[in-house]
Hints:
By secondary structure, the chain is an alpha+beta fold.
Amino acid sequence: xxxxxxxxxxxxxxxxxxxxxxxxxxxxxxxxxxxxxxxxxxxxxxxxxxxxxxxxxxxxxxxxxxxxxxxxxxxxxxxxxxxxxxxxxxxxxxxxxxxxxxxxxxxxxxxxxxxxxxxxxxxxxxxxxxxxxxxxxxxxxxxxxxxxxxxxxxxxxxxxxxxxxxxxxxxxxxxxxxxxxxxxxxxxxxxxxxxxxxxxxxxxxxxxxxxxxxxxxxxxxxxxxxxxxxxxxxxxxxxxxxxxxxxxxxxxxxxxxxxxxxxxxxxxxxxxxxxxxxxxxxxxxxxxxxxxxxxxxxxxxxxxx
Length: 305
């Protein structure tokens, strides 16, 4: 069987660039993951938080060169994050910029199960080619984020089918992958988005903005609301940032959502988690005409507790 790939243009994603002798050291003091683990063959997912531990943005970091890092994040947050980080540069030798216009981002899914020659074959592994960068996001099915200079194509062997970003979004929701947008920036503490489970937090590294709150929640085990996966039982649409009440009385806020072919909505939402958390959740029963009837779906990774 010939190789088959789905290629989705992800125009909602942008690229932030950090360069200079102090780029890694500067971001080490700002982001939740340990940038010492970053290399030309390993990418990192990290959170940028405010002092209260709430996630301003999620960044997928790539080492583009010895003194250059690229970070993929929603395009609408790229410039605000550059400006916010820029306030803390002080005397550090680092330059920050929103370079979304210079790059295009695609999502590639191996519909036929084959890894393109030379492409990374495990999650968070990355590689460079022809001025571009590729990082594997997930293994089942294999998915990659591909950064190419604006106007360049995505070189793939075999048959490549161009699909809408919606197809990529379905895989992301099914995989329990959170994202933060302008509407949800600074709404969630890191663990509410399962960043600890997804390897986006290094609890042994030095200080970074928001660390105290995040570490306290981790070591005291006081995470009562987490990202979970649902599907509505009736046709409806939900947007990220939407809030409501489930039929069982739990309040929720949507993190990510995607329409199913039958009109129902599959979504990731932060809501009360576990028996102890559910017991502490205020549960004034919602009127039947306003409660959202949704079934709980499993995540592909286990949650603590």
